[in-house]
Amino acid sequence: MKRFLLVCIAVSALVSGVAMANADLAKAKNCMACHAVANKVVGPAFKDVAAKYAGQKDAEDKLTQKVLKGGSGVWGAVPMPANAQVTEAEARTLVKWVLSQK
């Protein structure tokens, strides 16, 4: 039983570390200049993005392209600029993290 508990704690710590690492990546790539997890800044809250795209099979691919190339019209008049400093792998990681917000 102790071993099981230790494994659960280790997995929990690993998952928390990954979630925090993705928040750190969002900060490092300037996502937080226009977004926040829980409330609208210039762009929508990440929780709102996750809710809007919940259950959409193509959401990860669609949003990865928006992070890379930018977009407009979905959340209002202010366009999201392209993010040349973000690689496709980083964009996919960020999108997975955003979509996991609740």
At a glance:
With 102 residues, the chain is mostly helical. It has helices spanning 2-28, 46-53, 59-69, 88-99.
How would you sum up this structure, described in words?
This protein is mainly alpha-helical and 102 residues long. It has a single domain, classed as Cytochrome Bc1 Complex, Chain D, domain 2 (Orthogonal Bundle), CATH 1.10.760. It has four helices and no strands. The radius of gyration is 15 Å and the shape is globular. The N terminus is likely disordered.
Features:
single chain, 102 residues, mainly alpha, Cytochrome Bc1 Complex, Chain D, domain 2, 4 helices
The ordered H/E elements are HHHH
Q: Write down the CATH class.
A: Mainly Alpha
Q: What's the total helix number?
A: 4
Percent range of helical residues: 55-70%
- State the distance separating the first and last CA atoms: 31 Å
What is the number of strand segments? 0
Strand percent estimate: under 5%
Q: Main sheet, how many strands, which sense, barrel?
A: none
Structural class by sheet pairing and helices: mainly alpha
| Computed CA radius of gyration, to the nearest angstrom | 15 Å
Question: Averaged pLDDT, please?
Answer: 85
The gross shape turns out to be globular
Number of domains: 1
* CATH level-four homologous superfamily name: Cytochrome c-like domain
